[in-house]
Amino acid sequence: MPVPGLGIAADITAMTAMAVALSTVFGANITKAVAEAAAVAALKDAVLKQPIKVLTKELSKLIPFAGQIIAPAISIGMVEAAGWIIARQMDEGRI
Q1: Which of 11, 16, 30, 31 is the most exposed place for a label (fewest CB within 10 A)?
Q2: Domain boundary assignment for the chain
Q3: What pLDDT was estimated at residue 75?
Q4: What is the pLDDT of residues 21-60, one digit of tens each?
């Protein structure tokens, strides 16, 4: 049985590392706390823009075998979308 919220915790961890890496690309120096806040905000924005994907991801976890392929694929797409949100905000100087 899948653990609710575990995927989101992993996504936030990955996004925090991505935000720190992106900050060096954009010539910024942000703390881990700022990176985590940016990650949470970007993921929230991505989830609000794609609620059907999030629902599909969570429901697919209940399907044996296929859910183990579908949920991570959707998660990767969500993390990528959130990463672009962070990159855009850094480029605009908002982070």
Answers
A1: 31
A2: 6-91
A3: 82
A4: 999 999 888 999 999 999 999 888 887 887 887 778 777 8
Tell me how crowded residue 10 is: count the other CB atoms within 10 A of its CB: 13
In contact, 77 and 13? CB cutoff 8 Å: no
Q: Residue 4 has what pLDDT?
A: 58
Whole-angstrom distance, CA of residue 75 vs CA of residue 90: 22
Q: Which of 1-10, 40-49, 63-72 has the lowest mean pLDDT?
A: 1-10
Distance CA 6, CA 66 (A): 18
Q: What's the 3-state SS for 26-86? A: CCCCCCHHHHHHHHHHHHHHHHHHCHHHHHHHHHHCCCCCHHHHHHHHHHHHHHHHHHHHH
80 half-sphere exposure, CB direction, 13 A CA radius: 6
pTM for the full predicted model: 0.73
DSSP state of 94: -
